[in-house]
Every structure is written in C-alpha cells, then in structure tokens.
C-alpha cells in the first residue's frame, strides 16, 4: 500500500511538469488556433541552451538560466515571426505540419551540435529525499513539482486577472473585434509564444535535471497531448488537474500493469473522456444566444 | 464646422476583383450624427470597414481615394492604431466577448484609449449611461439580452473616449421599445460628450429621426445627400426607404 502511495505521489509530481508544458501549448492554441507540436523540442532546446551556458561557458546557475531563457524566447519569437505568422488563416492542418517540421529541424540541429549522447546538466535540485510521514519522495521530483506548480498557478492567475490576460482572451474569442478595441492581435500571438518559451524553458531544465539530457527529451510532449485533450483545449485552468491525473495514471499503471502499459493508458483515458465530453473535462462550450 | 472624417472618391475591391465601392465621398463634421442609408449590398458596412481599417482582414483593399481623420491620412494604418486615433467601430451584430464578464469586456476596450484615463472614471461613465450594465458587471456577456449586448457594445466604445463612433446597425434584431431607448442614449452621448457618429441603419425612420445629415448609397456610390429633414421629404426616399405611398408611386 505504501508502495502504491509512493508511486502515486511520484506520478502526480511528474504531472506538475506536464501541466507546465501543456500550458505553453494551450496559450498558443487559444490565441491563434495553432497546435504547436514543436513544444517538446522547444523545451529540449532550452535545456541544451542551459547546458551550453553552464557547462560549456561555465556561467553560474542563475546566469545560465537567464541566458537559456533569453535564448528560448528569441527562438520562439523567430519561429512565430518566420514560420507561423505567414501561415495565419491557413488550414489548421497546414499550420500543424509546419510546427511538426520545426520540431524535426530543432531535433536534427541539436543532434548535429551536441551529439546523440546523454549529457548531464549541473544539478539545480537537491537530491535529498522529502519524507511525508514514512512515505519517501525522491528529492528532485518533489522539488521539480513544487517549482512547476508555483509557475503554473502564477501564470494561470496572471492570465485570469491581468489586463494582458483579458487581451489574450479577447483576441482568442474574436480577433476582428479585439482589433477594433485597440488590441494588437499579432502582438498578443507573439506574447503567447513568449509564454510558451518560458514554460518550455523551465520545464526543459527541470526535466533534464530529473532525467538526463538527450535530443529525445522533447518526446515527453507527446504525453502532454493527452493532458491537453483531457483538460480541454481552451481551458487554461484545466491543465493543472489534467496534468496530475495523467501523471498519476502513468505511474500507477506502470506499477500495476507493467511499464509497457504506461504509455498508452493516458490516451485511453483521453479517448474515453472525449467520447463523453468532447470539449475535455474543463473545456467550455461557447455560449450561443439565439 | 471642421470635419472629423472626410472620405473622397473612395473605391474598394474585395479579393482584387469584386468592386464594393466605386466612388464614394462623405464628410462628418464635429459633433454631428450622419446617417448612411442604402439597400443591402450597397456598400454601407464596407464604408465603415474602410474607415476602421478592417478591409485587409477580409481580403479587401482601398484601390483609390482617401480617408482622413482630422486632416490626417489614415489609409495605411492598422485597425488597432486607427481606434487609438479616436474612431471607434461598433460592429454589426454587437460581437460582445460572450465568455468574458461585462466588466472584462470593458477592460478589453481600455487598449483603445488615446490618453490614459482611470478605469474607474471610464467605467462609471459607461454605467451612468447604461445602469443595467452595472448590475450585470460580473455576468458573462453571452447571457445578456440582445439589447443589453448592444448597450455593452456601445459601452466599450465609451471606455475608449472616442472622437467619433461608427455604429453599424445598432437596431438589428431588437424590439422597437429597446431600439428607441438605445437611440435616446446615443443621442445623449452625442449631445453631452460631443461625440460624432456615423450611423448605418436599415431602419430609415429611426436613422432620419436621430441624424442631422444623411447620405444615400447605391451600388457603391453616394447618389443623394442632404440634411435629414430634406431627405425625409424626398419622394424617392419616402418610396424606397420609408415605405410611404406617394401620388407618383400610385
């Protein structure tokens, strides 16, 4: 039983990072109906930036993180400006394919620059385990969870209550009307790519700390797809709960049914939820007044 | 009186080939209400979109002519910049952000302000003209009645403190009683705040009642203009827009 609880907690903890990545996907989707399949690669690239800054150029952890963050934001803005903005108004699937392509390019370039092998980034999280009573939680996982949740909750609150958040929701709901009210919709879209770069950079560095750094680090974003579907594509608030559920489910099915099942159960759950609630658990239907 | 808005010889094409306006000229002087009358497809809404800069968003383009606001050419400006010059477009069909609260709808409009103004002052002014919005401020705008949504759409314009409001079909789908209530408030805003209005309205009776000057548009050009009392007595207008049987028609 203790075993089960420990696995559950570890699972929920990794769900915190899922929520962080999912948030980056959802803000972009909300503002421009672009599903960013390059999110995982953006996150992986951020981790390599952090590696380059701290190991190759021996910067301190804080300075290294700032450099990685600045690099991630620059790359995100470049992607938005060069590849995504010209595609605005094109069919959804065409834009999705562009983001897929960008993901492959990033993976390829990272492989060329840093090679395919595992790299070790400097430890930013303490290893010392956290004990909840007699339940053991690995130190890195617990601390990564705490950081992820603080960032996710902070961002959700910011998007909920700030003026920029109102502008984002206005641009998402009706771009032409948003323009008519002085909101520069293209700047809002660029702003959501910056948010995605921030969540990607933080989650990338955390993820590379908990696991190791390889060009395949971004593959975790595929698990996040289930989080996004489960929470609801248009629900910023839903990602946190959905992230916990998926993280927990993965860990528990890994324990009870074997690791080969942990990859598929999130999708089975997402599929079942979609059958009952097509908008996801927390997604809202649009209010239509006749 | 000085012109807030002047349009000269405007030609507009959609998708490069479909001509929506051929040669339209009009002028709105400071503090006046000007009505645009015309049948469906005559080019009234296109005129408003040309002014507010929406045409590029719908594959349209001004191919000839000029639009000036306070003497300054605005043809090349993006829509969010035009509204910050003081021309606020209240779109046809209201377009409130239905999932946001009434107050969030108003907050979104603060991006249109020309000069910084305290949120409280701006919202108090809106609630003064539309007290019902104050009671509903925390409700999702999608649950407001049609009339209340129109009030919110005009309220968003007030937040921006504009020089001029472009009103596209404010009476659309509303009960007659609500229509006159809203038009009384529009007239008050015009009088008290000296905001000019360019009004597109299917309901010619009400447009001629509240506007001081009017243009009749047919096939993308203005065919008739004049003070509204003259237009109201014009036989063609009576026949085609007011539905009055004249001797000639009989």
From TrEMBL, chain A:
CDD domains the record matches: TM_PBP1_LivH_like
Entry-linked InterPro entries: ABC_transp_permease (IPR001851), BCAA_transport_permease (IPR052157)
This protein's record includes keyword Lipid metabolism: no
Record GO biological process: amino acid transport
Localization (cell): Cell membrane
Membrane topology of this protein: Multi-pass membrane protein
Molecular functions (GO terms): transmembrane transporter activity
Residue stretches spanning the membrane: 7-29, 49-79, 91-115, 135-159, 188-207
Keyword Hydrolase: no
Signal sequence extent: none
Pfam families, per the entry: BPD_transp_2
Keywords for this protein: Amino-acid transport, Cell membrane, Membrane, Transmembrane, Transmembrane helix, Transport
Primary residence: membrane
One GO cellular component term noted in the UniProt record for this chain: plasma membrane
UniProt similarity note: Belongs to the binding-protein-dependent transport system permease family. LivHM subfamily.
UniProt-recorded name of the protein: Branched-chain amino acid ABC transporter permease
Taxonomic source organism: Mesorhizobium zhangyense
Automatic annotation (TrEMBL), chain B:
Organism: Mesorhizobium zhangyense
SMART domains: AAA
Keyword Transport attached: yes
GO molecular function: ATP binding; ATP hydrolysis activity; branched-chain amino acid transmembrane transporter activity
GO biological process terms, semicolon-separated: L-amino acid transport
TM annotation in the entry: none
PROSITE patterns tied to this protein: ABC_TRANSPORTER_1, ABC_TRANSPORTER_2
Domain ABC transporter residues, every copy: 5-244
Tagged with keyword Transport: yes
Pfam families: ABC_tran
Protein's name in the database: ABC transporter ATP-binding protein
Region forming the signal peptide: none
UniProt KW keywords: Amino-acid transport, ATP-binding, Nucleotide-binding, Transport
Homology family: Belongs to the ABC transporter superfamily.
CDD domains: ABC_TM1139_LivF_branched
Superkingdom of this protein's organism: Bacteria
């Amino acid at each position: 039983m203790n075993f089960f609880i420990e696995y559950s907690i570890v699972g929920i903890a990794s769900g915190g990072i899922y929520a962080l990545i999912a948030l980056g996907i959802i803000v972009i989707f909300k503002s421009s109906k672009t599903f960013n399949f390059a999110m995982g690669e953006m996150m992986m690239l951020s981790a390599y930036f952090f590696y380059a800054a701290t190991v190759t150029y021996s910067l301190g952890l804080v300075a290294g993180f700032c450099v990685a963050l600045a690099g991630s934001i620059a790359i995100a803005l470049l992607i938005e400006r060069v590849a995504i903005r010209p595609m605005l108004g094109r069919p959804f699937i065409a834009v999705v394919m562009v983001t897929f392509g960008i993901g492959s390019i990033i993976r390829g370039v990272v492989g060329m620059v840093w090679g395919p092998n595992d790299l070790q980034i400097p430890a930013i999280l303490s290893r010392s385990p956290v004990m909840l009573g007699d339940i053991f939680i690995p130190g890195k996982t617990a601390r990564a969870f705490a950081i992820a949740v603080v960032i996710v909750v902070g961002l959700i609150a910011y998007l909920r209550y700030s003026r920029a958040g109102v502008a984002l929701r206005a641009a998402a709901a009706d771009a032409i009307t948003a323009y008519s009210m002085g909101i520069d919709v293209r700047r809002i879209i660029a702003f959501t790519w910056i948010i995605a770069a921030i969540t990607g950079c933080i989650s990338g560095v955390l993820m590379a700390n908990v696991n190791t750094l390889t060009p395949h680090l971004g593959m975790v974003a595929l698990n996040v797809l289930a989080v996004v579907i489960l929470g609801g594509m248009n629900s910023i608030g839903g990602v946190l709960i959905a992230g916990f559920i998926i993280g927990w489910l993965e860990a528990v099915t890994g324990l009870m049914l074997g690791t080969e099942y942990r990859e598929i159960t999130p999708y089975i759950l997402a599929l079942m939820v979609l059958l009952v609630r097509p908008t996801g658990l927390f997604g809202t239907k649009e209010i239509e007044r006749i | 009186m000085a012109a807030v808005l002047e349009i000269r010889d405007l030609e507009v094409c959609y998708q490069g080939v479909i001509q929506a306006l051929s040669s339209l000229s009009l002028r709105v002087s400071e503090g006046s209400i000007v009505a645009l009358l015309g049948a469906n497809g005559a080019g009234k809404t296109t005129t408003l979109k040309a002014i507010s800069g929406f045409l590029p968003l719908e594959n349209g383009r001004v191919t000839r002519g000029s639009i000036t606001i306070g003497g300054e050419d605005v043809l090349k400006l993006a829509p969010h910049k035009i509204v910050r010059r003081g021309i606020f477009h209240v779109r046809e069909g209201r377009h409130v952000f239905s999932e946001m609260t009434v107050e969030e709808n108003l907050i979104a409009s603060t991006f249109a302000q020309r000069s910084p103004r305290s949120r409280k002052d701006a919202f108090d002014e809106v609630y003064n003209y539309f007290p019902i919005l104050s009671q509903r401020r925390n409700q999702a705008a999608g649950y407001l009645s049609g009339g209340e949504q129109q009030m919110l759409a005009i309220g968003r314009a007030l937040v921006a403190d504009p020089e001029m409001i472009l009103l596209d079909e404010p009476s659309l789908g509303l009960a007659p009683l609500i229509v006159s209530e809203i038009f009384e408030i529009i007239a008050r805003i015009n009088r008290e705040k000296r905001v000019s209005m360019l009004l597109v309205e299917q309901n010619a009776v009400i447009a001629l009642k509240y506007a001081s000057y009017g243009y009749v548009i047919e096939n993308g050009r203005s065919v008739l203009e004049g003070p509204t009392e003259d237009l109201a007595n014009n036989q063609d207008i009576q026949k085609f827009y007011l539905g009055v049987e004249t001797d000639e028609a009989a």
